[in-house]
Amino acid sequence: MGVREYQSLTPYATALEENWGKPPGNLNSDGENLLVYGKQYGNVFIGVQPTFGYEGDPMRLLFSKSASPHHGFAAYYSFVEKIFKADAVLHFGTHGSLEFMPGKQVGMSDVCYPDSLIGNIPNIYYYAANNPSEATIAKRRSYANTISYLTPPAENAGLYKGLKQLGELISSYQSLKDTGRGPQIVSSIISTAKQCNLDKDVKLPDEAEAISANERDLVVGKVYSKIMEIESRLLPCGLHVIGEPPSAMEAVATLVNIAALNRPEDGISSLPSILAETVGRDIEEVYRASDKGILKDVELLRQITDASRGAISAFVERTTNKKGQVVDVADKLSSILGFGINEPWIQYLSSTKFYRADREKLRTLFEFLGECLKLVVADNELGSLKQALEGKYVLPGPGGDPIRNPKVLPTGKNIHALDPQAIPTTAAMQSAKIVVERLIEKQKADNGGKYPETVALVLWGTDNIKTYGESLAQVLWMIGVMPIADTFGRVNRVEPVSLEELGRPRIDVVVNCSGVFRDLFINQMNLLDRAVKMVAELDKPEDQNYVRKHALEQAKALGVGVREAATRVFSNASGSYSSNINLAVENSSWNDEKQLQDMYLSRKSFAFDSDAPGAGMTEKRKVFEMALSTAEATFQNLDSSEISLTDVSHYFDSDPTNLVQNLRKDGKKPNAYVADTTTANAQVRTLAETLRLDARTKLLNPKWYEGMMATGYEGVREIEKRLTNTVGLSWRPMDVGTGNPEQNIERLRQLYSEVEDKIEGIDR
Predict the structure, then answer these.
(1) In sequence order, what DSSP letters do the residues of 658-711 get, joined into one string?
(2) Residues 542 and 665 in one domain
(3) What is the pLDDT of the chain when averaged over all its residues?
(4) What confidence score (pLDDT) does residue 734 get?
(5) How far apart are CA 400 and CA 467, in angstroms?
(6) Overall domain count for the chain
(7) 535 and 675 belong to one structural domain
(8) 487 and 585 both lie in a single domain
(9) Which Pfam families match (predicted)?
(10) Residue among 307, 306, 305, 327 nearest 316 (CA)
(11) Residue 440 belongs to a domain
(12) Pick from 471, 484, 454: which is nearest to 513 by CA?
């Protein structure tokens, strides 16, 4: 596209010159003309959306509080609307750049770039069903009709190489521990565990050290618990193909995880709790004991897990055809559920120790799982696209995690989120209390028995939609307040919990909200800010109220009132997203960490102030820095199996751990924690433990990387992306391998040669 043609077709082209100079610029251009990448097939043009443009001059752009699309980006959309004359555009795949261009957060006008770019073209957008928050941004800022698609089929990570060998050694130990061979096998378990670097996660004695039978059981129990955690972790295997429902075996792992959650509101007990009751145990007790490494409970939990998988596999197999596809589910389910004696799960359990499981509870659960199975395999992804292209109504449906909320299924719906004023729910508050107490327990254990005075947290939009406000509830419980809902179920006020009921001091918080959270939950930011300021004004001893203690210190240092000093809710400036550290790391456009920290502070130090309604986000960098300088721990949440720490760059983009270390007077690095509520047994791990678990279950796991490589170059890009994100999070080498370092390096070399074979002909 020539420059003159571009200027005549793009009325807002002159506004881009402030950031990008005169067209054509050096992005998507050959120096004389602008280039539109794509290929036309008759009436269809398939194009590649241009990038944000950070590659051109990353440092200038990354520090700017607002930016604009580059000329190549604008030319692309001018071409689609005015030269190709598209009747509709389909944005294919989650999270493009268009909807995140600068402009108002909601209610676009003609000076907002998303509005200028999309012009008058109807926008249809395939979006992952588990990401309702960013889908909402796409609707609000680019007028998209979002059509949900399934996340990739999930499988259990399984065990491989040294980890598999460990599993076999533990089985030998259990059958031979009372013979003379027990100590010898434990010695092999310890040396193999060390080879697999499990000594980073489990305290292991020396192989030659003589230990008692009870201590041997505890060592084996702890190693067993760790490898069970790796084995049962859910992994997305490969990529989802639009319009291809999962096969039966792919559906089993999803159903096992749906069955693992209690659903008291529907009168449904979880399968693990039904099986545990059969042997006279409470499943929560089993989880706790297994976490501590008590061998007989780790073994019981493994038996419960195996029986759950077996019973559900037996159930799903009855609904499949010879190709392993689930067919005629409705007819087959009515024949299974119609007769008591033939129930496949009862047949399976009859040969296990759980043969006396409560039949009524099982029946209620499997009727629910039958409905879920119908939804998992019902496929309307292509049907909805066709309806949208015909200008017809696309049925709406909630987005979120299909395991927590199976109503997200079937896919092919126009995604909506939830009523933002209805969170946090009572159930979210219950879960939050458990996680907060575990976090404080872990921090006290790592910090000489002292309570953390301040915790720096990150709040994400998607997480809070999926969990109905769990991470929001965690912040409220740390400072010791309870949300109060009105008669319509809207949460718009809080009340302090007494110190007697709380049983600990009120922990100070620094809350960093993502740009998406700010857009979707502005009322909840108001609620949080009011809650923190209320706690800062409570007249209680400072050693029991760290919010007040720090607010008084900061008010004195800054010469401001206590309420202003108690500002703790921060995000980006209105209409701006992300700290952009991820882009700087991905483009290698930084020289030292100080640049990254300045970038974080300049983009993330905008405060919400409930005392100034309608003022929007105001920059309060000094307050932000002072509040962060008191943090002794940082904290993030993982809430679903599809997205983990290394799957997206946002986790290291928003992680304040390194920043806090440089702001603290003593230069001490805060402990970084990650809560994992992806299973019924919620865990709080350190950042390093979570990264090791992630690397073992994905990057180093043949099941995962071979599944990815089977999908060609896109799968290879996914492998590369996770390696980049691991480096982005770690800043230093980490031992995560499954053998000695030389073997790991050799394995990576092999992996890279396989990857290079796959990407011949593709720009490395």
Answers:
(1) HHHHHHSTT-PPPEEEEEE-SSSS-EEEEHHHHHHHHHHHTTT-HHHHHHHHTT
(2) yes
(3) 83
(4) 34
(5) 8
(6) 4
(7) yes
(8) yes
(9) CobN-Mg_chel
(10) 327
(11) yes
(12) 471
